């Protein structure tokens, strides 16, 4: 396998992910779109094929989508050291932010003002991720009717059931491979990804010790596929219904924190861990959630790098990518139904999408700041 000489340094890549983790709003849909825009189109640090391989692997392996894609991008030219530093740089800024929010939350016994901020930010986020999903879709699918069919099926599944299913991703890759090349499948292509599905999920914390928290959040990172959209129901069932570590209002505030902070949506586990056991709990929750996805990205990465250019593997990856893109587009609709609650939020989402569509120079953080201010103004005006 020939190794392409990188046109960037590892320090440049780390700085980029620190910036993305600090200013990257919009969740996995927007973050994956930012990586494509910045690293493939603008900087040309990685190829489109590398990006698609990373996106496919991130969808096949359990864990948060955007973080896994960032880890894979770090691996492309700088291997394990690059993957480790890219992942840490991506997660660290938002982790520090949720720690600060957690401290304020506990100090002031709740954050009612955050609901006003989320009112505006949530609407703007829908506009941001709509544009990101559109660009990602048109770039990855082209004019292939079969890929568009896979896209529509995966998107419809996400919208109707409001969840993601790794079986759809694997099936999409197998179907596209089979129909495009007319070859008999041996099953070897996807066998390495079945391991997480066969692991025991019997780890069930019964209290609030750090070790029990570690086991619970490890399970969250190891058995939830896709994005923050997928992990929220799992966390709700365990934290609120099963163990009673958080009440309903605390959990809803944790979801709000996930949406108004940049970086991976799943970093809200740091906020949750802080509410349960302070700073040690935040560290344990974050490490336990992200470590499985790090392993599930780095361990298969050499095989993707070595065999990903094979025509048969490429067809499989193209099918998975089409399903992943459909799921991302479906997630926009699912999230939109929760964030667009009246005429004001609808107007903010539409204006955000139009502004970002017409101008590529307006930074997303500025849009988020304006939306937050508008949200506060409208919220208190309505009262």
Automatic annotation (TrEMBL):
The keyword Cell membrane applies. Its main location: membrane. The chain crosses the membrane at residues 13-34, 55-75, 81-104, 116-134, 146-179, 214-236, 256-276, 283-303, 315-336, 365-381. One of its GO terms (cellular component) is plasma membrane. The keyword Transmembrane helix applies. It is found in: Cell membrane. It is a multi-pass membrane protein. GO terms for molecular function: chromate transmembrane transporter activity. Keywords: Cell membrane, Membrane, Transmembrane, Transmembrane helix. It holds the Pfam family Chromate_transp. It comes from the Bacteria. Belongs to the chromate ion transporter (CHR) (TC 2.A.51) family. PANTHER family: CHROMATE TRANSPORT PROTEIN-RELATED (PTHR43663), CHROMATE TRANSPORTER (PTHR43663:SF1). This is Chromate transporter. It comes from Chitinophaga skermanii.
């Amino acid at each position: 396998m020939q190794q392409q000489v990188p046109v960037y340094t590892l320090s440049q890549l780390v700085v980029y992910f620190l910036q993305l983790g600090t200013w990257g709003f919009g969740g996995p849909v927007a973050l994956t779109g930012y990586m494509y825009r910045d690293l493939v189109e603008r900087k040309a640090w990685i190829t489109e094929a590398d990006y698609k391989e990373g996106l496919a692997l991130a969808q096949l392996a359990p864990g948060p989508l955007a973080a896994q894609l960032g880890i894979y991008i770090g691996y492309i030219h700088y291997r394990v050291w690059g993957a480790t530093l890219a992942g840490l740089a991506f997660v660290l800024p938002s982790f520090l932010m949720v720690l600060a929010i957690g401290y304020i939350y506990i100090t002031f016994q709740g954050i009612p003002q955050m609901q006003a901020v989320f009112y505006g930010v949530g609407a703007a986020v829908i506009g941001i991720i709509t544009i990101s999903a559109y660009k990602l879709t048109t770039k990855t699918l082209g004019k292939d009717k079969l890929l568009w069919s896979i896209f529509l099926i995966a998107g419809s599944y996400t919208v109707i059931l409001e969840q993601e299913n790794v079986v759809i991703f694997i099936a999409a890759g197998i179907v596209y491979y089979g129909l495009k090349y007319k070859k008999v499948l041996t099953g070897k292509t996807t066998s390495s990804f079945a391991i997480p599905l066969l692991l025991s999920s019997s780890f069930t914390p019964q209290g609030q010790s750090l070790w029990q928290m570690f086991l619970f959040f490890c399970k969250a990172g190891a058995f939830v596929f896709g994005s923050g959209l997928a992990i929220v129901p799992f966390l709700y069932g365990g934290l609120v219904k099963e163990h009673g570590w958080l009440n309903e209002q605390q959990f809803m505030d944790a979801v709000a924190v996930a949406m108004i902070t940049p970086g991976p949506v799943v970093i809200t586990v740091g906020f949750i861990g802080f509410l349960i056991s302070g700073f040690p709990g935040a560290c344990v929750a974050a490490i336990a959630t992200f470590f499985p996805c790090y392993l599930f990205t780095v361990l298969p990465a050499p095989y993707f790098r070595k065999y990903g250019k094979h025509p048969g593997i490429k067809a499989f990856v193209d099918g998975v990518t089409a399903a992943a893109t459909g799921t991302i587009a479906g997630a926009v609709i699912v999230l939109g139904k929760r964030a667009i609650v009246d005429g004001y939020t609808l107007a903010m989402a539409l204006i955000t999408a139009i502004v970002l569509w017409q101008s590529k120079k307006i930074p997303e953080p500025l849009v988020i700041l304006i939306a937050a201010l508008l949200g506060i103004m409208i919220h208190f005006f309505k009262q």
